[in-house]
Amino acid sequence: MEKVTTKRLAIYTGRTHPALAHEVAAHLNIDVGHDGLIEFANGEVRCSFGESVRGTDVFVMQTHFGIDDRSVNDSIMEHLIMIDAASRASAKRITAVCPFYGYARQDRKAAGREPITARLVADMFKAAGAKRMISIDLHSGQIQGFFDGPVDHLTAMPVLEQYVRANASEPVIVSPDAGRIKVAERMAQHLNDCGADLAFIYKRRPKGTTNVAEAAEVMGDVEGRICVLTDDMIDTGGTIVAAAELLMKRGAKEVWAMATHGLLSGPAIDRLKNAPIERIVLTNSLPFPPEKQLPNLEVLSIAPLIAEALSAVFDDTSVSDIFDGENLA
User: pTM of the entire structure?
Assistant: First the structure.
């Protein structure tokens, strides 16, 4: 007996950032599936999909972030539970879509007796039943190797570059530390048509501290120029604010701060309010509750990029072609 099978795509989302999933689904002309999430009195979560996923290509989207009295750990656990539910419901292939990947900064042992939690998270997703992973601007490229299966590493760089090209002339793309020089250099090369230059900040963190950064010096010509600080995330804002203050001291005309992920944790909002930063440009990889809104904050959508990547995975075509192969580092 011969039978022609049809492929089906389904998107489900957890409760952390459903708006992004619905925007992605709209670009794909489908609806987000019913997740049936229930939280018991003791905080345990149960998932029960409202429709059959047998033989379906299932994409479970959840950005790993704490919101509405739920922590980042709750977000990850909810994601795992939904993937396990899809696996036990006989989904054909399950892809974990993590716009922001939790614990990405713990990708190595910086000192003795420390965990590599980014690897642990990857192992948990594999154990839950995810066959593939999609994420955006991982903190470091090696995290792709932590997951035992294909990883599609997307980048928000095209969205951010388009904004700079439309709003600035002859900008200086500034890396806030040595770790982001390669990314800043690539961005400056892409913006060569609008006269972009490159600079970077020498930064150090005092030994034994966290969320403390000291900007020591600027390498590059920034006097009288619009300086665009680019990073993968803004968490407490210490690195970006210290860099912005140093750039203004060195004669910068304006300082913009751009990042893919706006965590804006702890003192970030107060720091950014008082910082000499003209524009803060972030993507919607994370939700922005009212208390994290700033008058100079602009949020760009990465839903079209995610939708294009999901479509490529579903059609078994190249994801890296979307970014001309420059999403792999």
Answer: 0.93
